[in-house]
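G., before I forget:
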Amino acid sequence: MIKAGVIGATGYAGAELCRLLLSHPQAQLTALSSVSFEGKALSEVYPAYRGLCDLTCGSADQVVDACDVIFAALPHGLSQELAAQCDAKGKVFIDLGADFRLENEEDYKQWYGGEYTDKQLHAKAVYALPELFRDQIRGKTVIANPGCYTTGVPLALAPAVKLGLVETAGIIADCKSGVTGAGRGLTQGSHYPELNEGMHPYKVAAHRHTPEIEQTLSHLAGEKVRITFVPHLLPVNRGILSTCYARLKPGVDKQQVRRAYEDFYKDEFFVRLLPDGQCADIHNIKYSNFCDVSLHIDDRTGTLIAVSAIDNMVKGAAGQAIQNMNLVFGLEETTGLTQMPPAF
Amino acid sequence: MIKAGVIGATGYAGAELCRLLLSHPQAQLTALSSVSFEGKALSEVYPAYRGLCDLTCGSADQVVDACDVIFAALPHGLSQELAAQCDAKGKVFIDLGADFRLENEEDYKQWYGGEYTDKQLHAKAVYALPELFRDQIRGKTVIANPGCYTTGVPLALAPAVKLGLVETAGIIADCKSGVTGAGRGLTQGSHYPELNEGMHPYKVAAHRHTPEIEQTLSHLAGEKVRITFVPHLLPVNRGILSTCYARLKPGVDKQQVRRAYEDFYKDEFFVRLLPDGQCADIHNIKYSNFCDVSLHIDDRTGTLIAVSAIDNMVKGAAGQAIQNMNLVFGLEETTGLTQMPPAF
Amino acid sequence: MIKAGVIGATGYAGAELCRLLLSHPQAQLTALSSVSFEGKALSEVYPAYRGLCDLTCGSADQVVDACDVIFAALPHGLSQELAAQCDAKGKVFIDLGADFRLENEEDYKQWYGGEYTDKQLHAKAVYALPELFRDQIRGKTVIANPGCYTTGVPLALAPAVKLGLVETAGIIADCKSGVTGAGRGLTQGSHYPELNEGMHPYKVAAHRHTPEIEQTLSHLAGEKVRITFVPHLLPVNRGILSTCYARLKPGVDKQQVRRAYEDFYKDEFFVRLLPDGQCADIHNIKYSNFCDVSLHIDDRTGTLIAVSAIDNMVKGAAGQAIQNMNLVFGLEETTGLTQMPPAF
Amino acid sequence: MIKAGVIGATGYAGAELCRLLLSHPQAQLTALSSVSFEGKALSEVYPAYRGLCDLTCGSADQVVDACDVIFAALPHGLSQELAAQCDAKGKVFIDLGADFRLENEEDYKQWYGGEYTDKQLHAKAVYALPELFRDQIRGKTVIANPGCYTTGVPLALAPAVKLGLVETAGIIADCKSGVTGAGRGLTQGSHYPELNEGMHPYKVAAHRHTPEIEQTLSHLAGEKVRITFVPHLLPVNRGILSTCYARLKPGVDKQQVRRAYEDFYKDEFFVRLLPDGQCADIHNIKYSNFCDVSLHIDDRTGTLIAVSAIDNMVKGAAGQAIQNMNLVFGLEETTGLTQMPPAF
């Protein structure tokens, strides 16, 4: 059994990691930490967990010492030191924050306002979106787990971009996210009466996930890609729907696009390419690690509309982190992640 | 007092017309009809109305005879005959359906599968989006009230398109609608457990509002405009958020766009142009005839992102129909439509 | 025109007062105050109000000076001084807080922990639930506006209790409230992801509205009444459903109960007694001042089940306050309060 | 591996059975049937299941022949014949419908309008609420799985009733259910715009679960118990909250009640007795087989308020059915049912 620990266990991503690790057949949730709730049981913070996870939150140091793999679910800027500590002790470090995601330190400075204090460590890190970069992840020990939008958008577009079926200029990602993505912290925007029956965009063309999506698409395209990215806040708990628009290159037709996607994802358990005529819906992937993708062509304007649906807390955070753990530890990649999305 | 009647009063748009007409100071809700509920009081169908509107549903003929203005809220294809009847009797006919909206009969054939049986009547009709076509509406008696998406999208884009600030090729309208837009009829998609906590696109690049939006934008641009239009279904009752993307023409900057919108809408009571930094939200226009518009520029890609929020049942249907009635009868355009959107 | 002012205008009850006063034909919203947002326009706090209420929040003193009637929507304990100030200046004071509601100071001490600093002022105050105590309200200038549960429960039970149709021992009020009742302040319990898809009781048999409900029922019964009161939090914005249980006295039958209610409420515009077979639903009274009441008899156990539905922000707060203003100023009691509840 | 089959697999309870059986380590979902969708894959009806359960729906006969245990999720009246068929072939039959739940045929006639065609078969059946009747279930092959309300209410009250701590006269169960309890069939009441933001009771003191709850409580009390039972419809997908009121017998105090519950449930994995001061919440048991119970005493009126929360589709239907399967087949009772309720 792999001894797994979660730092920042009482935030939403941390709590979801705990839920998933507890049903993992080859990992044991061994230690938790939380700055806000040190000394409290996780089930005091989340009564849903009572009787199934009554572990008490300790310190980050305790987690590092007790575990083989350490998941960090922290605000950005706090992971670098922790990663170094894990690295020094030979532990696997899986970061759900943003500190190791951007290869170009300039991007990090511009969008996050920090810098890379330990460049060697950054060089050891890998950006770990398994469906796209599986081969580079194996054997690594500093794992940058992607963000939520940055999983959904690339998975919607990857085959088209990689195979050059669409123009890389003018790509638009219009994304709609459930509110758990904003975390457990209280804000006026997530106060029930003000979000309920509402819907609005936020951080329009200014969200920090922009350079991360562009980094992935640029790797796939083999050239620098810029996109327009607009996230919206949905009055639902979970799920990100990404409606992505890209101009088809001249001569590319519907069948060609479909075949490309079928081929690209044919061995991917977690990507479900929907049949023609169906639309991806966050309703169908909740609480699971699936990414549903539907394809639509607007013949009148020559536009590919690729839509993906993920659970922001699972495939967009904790589930993918466990998928990466499986990869790193040489387990079957789907281990502990085959939960069926409920039908309702 | 204008005697107003509603045909199709028990559908959602019809019921909303009744609610708004009942608080109109210069109109009197005089007669209702409903095929499904003939002989029943409206308040039996909608108990919310008990004590305030206990009118009984009669036949369409009764409504036409009793009223000065007849609002029809019917499935498409049923309005043409009714319009002819009203026209013959010198009544004002305001159609909330699609039968008179498309100027080009070919478009109607292609998207709705019907034809224009009385071309003279169609020639008398006017497409009545007051903020854009006010001058053509006055004096008319066959009024084609716009649809919901077809109000929200043009109001988001009109100043930019009219003034040539954006390329007319490649415009994308990503719209999110509350479920009342789908009406009172029962469907699996509007069954509570299947819509709740869900979100998905539908009729992707194939929705009948496409040619209607294009018709309006083409008039504004003075050239044929094609757009990519993708509607989504939201788990809320009311509201349409339209996130519209258009490439800025070279040299157009943020200030220029803002000034154009400010100028274009400076006398429009129902269009609220939000200050820089705010985002349109359906939460803020519910139960009102307002259209909130927010402007965003993506400098990195040269894209205008114009977002509008309307209540699909008010500005997107019944409210705008009353606004048109006011126009046609020479009343102050805002009469009976100054309800304040609740803060929550 | 009555000059009306709102102290505590940026809380939920205050904001709702502003919305309703702005559509009142014989009152003018003249001045606002807010401690948290002094100097800000109300529409900055609630963008829904933009263009319709851009009044700036000033100080409480400014409101008192500028207005004929002052509504206070403040946390308990803050109204006593304000009431004295209004009284001294000959202004009408309508308190939406709890400071003047309990006739027995001991109750106030026990449940709120404060005391009555100015007993003379308390002697001038009147508990103002118009349908039950109308005659005592006219001519008063210190008005204690009832709370939300304390409106819904008595209106469900009043005829039965007043006419002695039920035992006054063993009455149970199981109430379900929308979350606006908890106000604008942020709490974990009103954080969207934690309330959404949830439902739980709170302050079980320990809610401060208990003595207030008992005071009203005791007046009606002519004897001391104690009840069991359990409030629950609903994942909706507005509305309180009160399901009230009382044992029928021997020999009392269904027809007798129905006739009693019909007679008791026959002249009450705001109380809608539903026909047999229908159930009160918060869906049908939203945004209105109505109280829907449905009656049910459990013959098997001899129990009256009386259910009421009110909008907690309107009949349960701001609407009733305006109803009281109308009464005090000699206006038609329904003035400005005939908004139709939307059907959806 | 136990071969398990589901008859009525495309209804909500049937679909939930499939979800849970697919993660059961000692059962294999072997065959499905559906009258409405025969010949279709379950994943065509519920796209959430794509890739994990693409079994095709066949006939009921095929299910009976292929399986060791047959779960029936059918409207009442259809199970008797099926049970006989299973009995004749030596198969275990677990009925999620009502046909075998009531011991007294007169109750069945009165509340359901049918009769018991095969009295011998009824004699073999057992009412299977494991926490209360475990010993009688083992060894049986015709299993009447309780309904949803009829699980939640008895689990809230059992210790108090069994141990005689409360009066059995005057018990009130005020229950609030998520809408999946009403099933997949379309109704106006579950049409999204009409349920959303609503809340109302239904079948007040007239719901068919009344005699079933009374049967269980009567067994516990050792005397005939009658209750007042009022169900309400909640705008959430899952969960039943049961707020149960019973008068404490003279001299019974809080500690006594608490100890009784602690003792009664000390070995029950699925019943989580919450600490004093916490309240049961459907938010905390979603998608799990748990029943959370909180206890509250109203000292002022001598009332026990016991509140339970279950997921109506799991502990209130499919999960409990699998718990019964485990019991019947001699497996650990929790097998396949230890899913953690998500924290949000």
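The first strand of chain D starts at residue 2 and ends at 7. Residues 314-328 of chain D form the longest helix (15 residues).

More on Monday.
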